[in-house]
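Why show two proteins at once? Because comparison is the fastest way to build intuition. When a single record is shown, students tend to memorize it. When two are placed side by side, the eye starts asking what differs. So, the first record is below.
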Amino acid sequence: MSASQKVQQHPAFVQVQNKASYYVNTLDKELTKYPVLNNLEQRTQIPKAYAVIGGIFLLTFLHAFNALAAPVSNLVGWALPAYLSFKAIESPSPHDDVQWLTYWVVFGFFNFLESFALRVVLYYVPWYFAFKSVFIIWLQLPAFRGAQTAYYNVLKPVLANISSQTRVVAPTTSTSEPAAVHE
């Protein structure tokens, strides 16, 4: 019996292999809800769970090289939401429109703020773009309703405060006498 066969038959190895299979099967069942992934699986013959796991590892690898981290993070924030926004425009239901409009407002505001503080944030926060990508995914996924949560808890109060301040009209002085003309 070879060394690799002994390792493969070891109870700890078998237990890890069974756990991994369980988690991959559970992930596969969850991913079946997404038609895009089902189509990808049919076209490529790569199981959707493996494609998602591979994509996560690829993103992690690309984040390890800081020069690629920013473009990858922005791609994560743009690619799938843009596609799903186009689909939402064509669908008759307004629910997905609200999801993606809210996402784009929050994503745009976040990128606007980031443009002011990026150098400082990069200095103090290692792996910033990895955290940003996770945050963006949280915003995107309808199961978490991250975009709505961020909008209602952060953006809406800020925008309401700004809006109420712009509605205040400066007091005007009206006099019944005509203004004196200086010669």
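Second record. Ask yourself what differs from the first in the token line.
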Amino acid sequence: MLRHKKIILGVCGSIAAYKAALLVRQLVKAEAEVQVILTTSASEFITPLTLATLSKRPVLTQFVRDEGGLWNNHVDLGLWADAIVVAPASANTVAKMANGFCDNLLTATYLSARCPVFVAPAMDLDMYQHPSVQSNFTKLRGYGNYIIEAGFGELASGLIGQGRLAEPEEIMEVLQNFFAREGKIV
């Protein structure tokens, strides 16, 4: 179901960013085209080199590619994609998406996209449960986005509760089910 689908994977700053490498690998194995966009803080958790190697595409991090005037056009990216998956989605990026802030390439691409958007949050228990974060999830759902709920378990802080990034296999299943349903609608 993902063969030839164009997927933008947005990776945000989170200890769970290592799972993005596993997700990219599974998407490529399913024959999807994957374009990774890293937020600035994400590159402190996982390197662009790792994700570029697995996706077979340069990882995008900024609007401007070089001082010669080349840039990463967020509008073109938004129109190119069949889906955007933000995994892990930090509380910061969720808030930006919910409230229309676009101070980075990922959020600008999100606001320019016409495709379905899947948000897989990862954050600590108290952050995940905070009313402002829950309100932002509600807003995102209201805009037609899909929230892939965080899992329950041991968190990086040592606390136990909801906040773990969904496993790559779970995210893949959500995407495959979505495109299978879309394929049947004619």
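One difference worth noting in the second protein: The first helix runs from residue 18 to 29.
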